[in-house]
């Protein structure tokens, strides 16, 4: 695309080849990743599941650094679902909490060196107080950074997020004179989601080959491009991220509209229509670089 690797950005030959094929003017504003496959990675090596979680930290580091260095404004990682909290063995959950705290402490320098600001979504109040404390300290330590916003989805459920949004709308109406004063539309709901201030993801990546969203950002992913790779999360690196972006740039994003020839492609034929049959005019928001709740 007629550009070079930015000075100071370390890339191996494969990463460089993929990066130089990208159109820097059409990078996604927000990438969301469903990090999946830690258990399978460990099982294939006859190791305990926690070994897969531990190995996944290297994938997080490589992916976050690459995204920040190429200029992605926002990256959201699905780290720990509400279902994980309820359905995984306590020993595994406890290990994940310790691993999270260790990541927040040990990666803080890397985040600051790369000008990355840290944010969280999910029901944080249900996490152990010691974990909440580590999260708050890491968030405060990166709050003045002005580069990429890294959001970790922790104890997160998209359905719970929507429930919480409606509760917040109802509570606001109650303070403002009752339900007669309650406005419910797309904008009002979006403003009460955990991700308020963030643009909806342009691209969602799922590792390990599974074809499902797993209760992740169900509202926000309405028009996102989906890229699934067979790579298990512990093996995912910056080059796989770049390959996902390259595939994204081949897509024709119409948001329910028509192409230059006046027709929609077969791939998007079912996309972009509300229940009344009209094409949605909703466009992706720009990133708000102010503080997030």
What does this structure look like?
- The chain is α/β, with parallel strands linked by helices and 293 residues long.
- It has a domain at 26-157 and 201-252: Undecaprenyl pyrophosphate synthetase.
- It has ten helices and six strands; from the N terminus they run αβααβαααβαβααββα.
- The chain has helices at 13-21, 38-44, 49-70, 82-87, 90-106, 108-113, 129-142, 158-175, 186-190, 238-248, and strands spanning 30-34, 74-81, 117-121, 149-156, 203-206, 225-228.
- It has a six-stranded parallel sheet, sandwiched between helices.
- Strand 3, helix 7 (129-142) and strand 4 form a beta-alpha-beta unit.
- Helix 1 packs parallel to helix 10 (238-248) and helix 3 packs across helix 10 (238-248).
- The radius of gyration is 20 Å and the shape is globular.
- Mean pLDDT is 86; it is low at 266-286 and 288-293.
Please provide a brief summary of the model:
The protein has about 290 residues and is of the alpha/beta class. The chain contains 10 helices and 6 strands, in the order H-E-H-H-E-H-H-H-E-H-E-H-H-E-E-H. It has a domain at about 25-155 and about 200-250: Decaprenyl diphosphate synthase-like (Undecaprenyl pyrophosphate synthetase).
User: Radius of gyration from the CA trace?
Assistant: 20 Å
Distance from N terminus to C terminus (CA atoms, Å) equals 38 Å
Fourth-tier CATH superfamily name of the domain at 26-157 and 201-252? Decaprenyl diphosphate synthase-like
Provide the spatial order of strands within the biggest beta sheet: 3-4-2-1-5-6
CATH architecture of the domain at 26-157 and 201-252: 3-Layer(aba) Sandwich
Can you give the helix content as a percent range?
25-40%
Please indicate the percent range of residues in DSSP E strands (runs of 2 or more): 5-15%
- What is the CATH third-level topology name of the domain at 26-157 and 201-252? Undecaprenyl pyrophosphate synthetase
Low-confidence stretches: 266-286, 288-293
Order of helices and strands: HEHHEHHHEHEHHEEH
Mean pLDDT: 86
